[in-house]
Task: structure prediction
Amino acid sequence: MRRALAVAVSVVALVGGMAGTASATNDTYFSRQWALTQIGAPAAWARSTGGGVTIGIVDTGVDAAHPDLAGKVVAMADCVGKPCTPGAAPDTHGHGTIVSGIAAAVTNNGKGVAGTAPDARLAVAKVLNAAGEGRVEDINNGIRWVVDNGARVVNLSLGDPDFLAASALGTPLRSGIEYAWSKGAVPVLASGNYANGVGDFGSENYGNLNALVVGATDRAGNVPSYSSPIGNAKWGLVAPGGAGSGGADSNVISTFMTSAGGTGYASAAGTSMAAPHVAGAVALLLAQGQSPAAAVSRILGSADKVSCGRGCQGRLNMAAAVGADPVPPTTAAPATTRATSAPRTTVPRPTTTKPPETTVPPTSSTTTTTTPPASREAQAAEQPEVALPEAVRVPVGNPSRRGPAGVAAGMLVLVMGSAVAATWARRLRA
Result:
């Protein structure tokens, strides 16, 4: 029995600029990375940049040759439908590349974006296919593989669409998550994009799960309507994930696939984007010599105390977590492994004139779409639906099949996307 959820790559036009914003790095789009400013990244980099720490990315793979990721990926494996096989882990969806860039893009190299943990490395397990779907067994295997190959933080921008079952039974990734914690790695799990405004509805039953559970914030620092509640998670907080609507600068700008016609950078929204900001913050603390437990305690104890729902202990403040004193935003971040003299990105610098927005047609005739869950229909009317690239929307499952066996054999997919089931996508272009 398979279960899956709505998933879409939310790629929006990257146009215009933010005039008058001083840059802490010379990365092309840094002045538009409001998320890094919101969490105090420039100040935090004065104390730690995550050097010597490997972040595990368990996702759709990675564009390891991307100019802003080249040299950062130290281990890769393909775990889709088989035991994890070391070697290439090509991203045929885009999500894993976006998440990787948020966590640890090469910084201060004169191009693209800055990463939350500029000097961290990446170990990537490809566990999801081109549609963003994956088996629970493969995902748990991928978690174990990145941990066994040096990851000290594990980013899981994944979710279970059947939140009715998950609210009772908890995540089917528990075995992988607990394995990571037992081996000294800190799991970071996206809370999901299933909120509907009714209490904790859409939240999983986290119980005593040893993972930082992360919801999203928008540019104003508020929790957007799509972000699933933290609920009963013992370690919960929120971090930048984007509004889920609007233009590029309302969401989170990161790396995107350069193959198959990709432009190299994209703006996306979802709790998938929030999780790697926290994963990067954990890497900075581990690089300071903190233990996993101490890093978790610092992340939660230093969080900005904002209203973010039951179980949420605040909004990520990376500068406070690493003990950084406030510094002017013009302070330069340290250069990472890529030389500043490297060739410039092929993506032109943003212009101040917004070109017409272009929808992206579906990339595969085999991609199926069905009616989204009824609880999302009212929200879907809030914005027009357009073509979805590499997107799948499926029912939340047959209620008669919900049970432990169904969870164990089920499928999980990405929790990236906008606030509505009818998530939308537009091509990124300068």
User: Anything to note?
Assistant: Confidence is low (pLDDT under 50) at residues 1-13, 15-22, 327-411, 416-430. The first helix runs from residue 34 to 38. Residues 303 and 316 are 5 Å apart (CA to CA). The longest strand covers residues 54-59.
